[in-house]
Amino acid sequence: MAGFIPQSFIDDLLSRADIVDVVGSSVTLRKTGKNYSGLCPFHQEKTPSFSVEPDKQFFYCFGCGKGGNAIGFVMDYENIEYPQAIESLANSMGIEVPREESVQHQQQRELNQTTFDVLQKASTFYQQQLRQHPDKNSVISYLKDRGLSGEIARDFKLGFAPPGWQNLLENLGSTSDDKKALLDAGLLIENPDNKRNPVYDRFRNRIMFPIRDRRGRVIAFGGRVIGDDKPKYLNSPETPVFHKGEELYGLYEAKQKVRKLERILIVEGYMDVIALAQNDIHYCVATLGTATSTSHLQRLFKLVPEAVFCFDGDNAGRDAAWRALQQALPLMEDGRSARFLFLPDGEDPDSQVRKIGSKAFVSSIGEATQLAEFFFDNLCSQVEMESLEGRAKLGTLAMPLIKLFPAGLLRQLILDQLAKVTGADLETLNKMSGDKATTADTHPYAPVEQARAADDPAISVKPKARSNVSHTCRKAVNLILLKPEIVKKVEIDESIKHLESNEIELLFEVIDLALNAPASSTHELLASIYGTPIGSQLIQLQDREQITPTTGIEKEFKEIVQYLTSIAKRKVAQNTLLAEARKKLAAKKQ
Ligand SMILES: [Zn+2]
Can you give the pTM of this predicted structure? Predict the structure, then answer.
């Protein structure tokens, strides 16, 4: 049911629901002191690190960092949104949720429902026409030429808008209300100047591709000409239910087909999505006549860790890819990846997959260019790398873009690479890469005072502004907490201690703990330090960081240790040089 849930009801619900009962109905809890503990339902574990505190009506997992109140638990456990969680919780307690709805809201909702209904009717009509209309053969032979099966046509609910100006109008627009609904949905065009047809069908003699929202409702159509008419592709206009800058064609269908999406391939047209699905590549989406935007990508990265952009290999394609890269930069947190698949000149995904077959196409996706590689390829192609000036220009071009990256290993990798190809000093680059507020903090050898400032909760709510070393250390600590035994498997170079910062100290304290405590699990480890300053520091830290990898923990830890070792060794080398220089200077003076 729609409408606002009054806040007073939510407060009342929370005061009546006991978190121990709510969690206890899904997780076996054991009383430990005044709290309860159990096996965390949100990550895999053998010993309990999940704790429920009746006093605070709060749950918290020391293993994966999840925590919240009763509603939060229901949201996470049932994987549903806030209002649904309230419904679910109230339901389980036999309480009905009251709803308040503003008149305006109610009217809009009813109007939208009418629009959804008429769009669905239109979709059914177009599908019928594809089966029944006397002119259907031209469409069917077009689809067959493209190698599409009846099954795929059904999955994507393809249809046919027959030739003529009044088909939809005559079939679905008999009353004035119906006509208005068709107009609101963008299916009719009103033009009083046109004396013969003041109102007529928008889509005529086209193959129809219904565009569906995340709930599978038809919200718009794309239509492709069958003959040579212009435009080749025509989309519904913006309506209250269709905002083309936000939608991705094929996303609903992909989610229906693939239970756990691992990656998404972003292509340009409907036919590309459908042709790839026909070739068993079911994880493709297309933007609707707009360039890929940050909001598109945000939506995709919520679903999958990897986005692969597919473009034509010509200049226009590479330009479009570069624009997509810039949209992706701010979203490139650790654990996410963006890659670029360039097709041979003149091919689109549809023609390419038919030419080389599904297997070869999938392996070309697997070998697509990494973001970092495309980043340097593109920038280096704009300057003369042989000259000093050219390399300096490369730095100038790269730095504003690097600033867009969130702090993390990828940004550091790009900086390292930039230092290598330009011959610039990494330390200077690191300094430049932070914005004004974080310059000092981004410095790899940030003085202790600044590292302390990063511990101030008021400052640390912005995790992206933290230094690479602090960020990396926190990550390492989290990995140890997730899997303490990794410290015994990865060799940790003592030189890292030369990187003086609070985070480094914390890291070594945790390493010591994990090495010396008999604790083999996160829970035991944390239990052994519960109530100590370091214990509370760790709990705070877990609250802030959101990494919950399930595999590759040891590998990631190893990479972090190697990374820290490399910068520590560089620092030691620099210090030695400095000391020598001072010695020489002192000798000269004497
Ligand atoms: Zn957990």
Answer: 0.59
